[in-house]
Design a protein that fits this description.
The protein is an alpha+beta fold. It has helices at 16-24, 49-52, 112-115, 179-183, 195-200, 202-207, 214-225; strands spanning 2-10, 27-33, 39-44, 58-64, 67-78, 85-92, 99-108, 119-122, 126-131, 140-143, 152-154, 164-165, 172-177. The protein is elongated and about 60 Å long.
Length: 226
Amino acid sequence: MRTLEINAEARTQTGKKETKRLRKEGNVPCVMYGGDKNIHFYTHENNFKDLVYSSNVYIVTVHVNGETHKGVLKDIQFHPVTDKIIHIDFMEVYDNKPVTIVVPVNLVGESVGIKGGGKLRLKRRRLAIRGLSDVLPDKLDIDITDMDVGDTIQIKDLEYEGVEILDPARAMVVSVISSRMAMKGMEIPEDTEEEGEEGEEGEEGAEGTEGTEGAEGAEEKEAEGK
């Protein structure tokens, strides 16, 4: 998995006044949880460009006042008007403990069905996976070369060494449908046995709710951290 290093400063105060001052200076307040204690820190917003504005997934190494911590991005809050980053949550990870992340699907090859005039339907662009940080991939490659019209690939058809896929086993990932079905707006239906589970969480549920808390949610987290 890709790694990213960030130099940061520890936050000795976490109240609203201090948080407002940090943001005014172009800094982003952050917290890393999941370890022995919550780690509050900040760094300039420019240090997050590769992390936030990218489809890549990273293990982030944060250097805070002489200490080093590894984590994965869990949640981001954006300003509702300016879209600037106002708060980031990280989950601390350890080499000997499994971690859960969401990674993009990467289709490899050109299917025989598409060559014959079929249409590709990618149902899930990202999947939730679990494993040790040193073996987790930053994307899941799926070879579609042998897929013909009518073929589908479900979660249960995928297997990666050292990685557990957490999405429902019968959920469809990708399919190839005929041009006629595509013109009529038809798609091969997913197995309905898992619909209740999908309806409750779905793809977005697996990824989290980035940006949904806004400034007020961020301030509540600040108050709890005091």
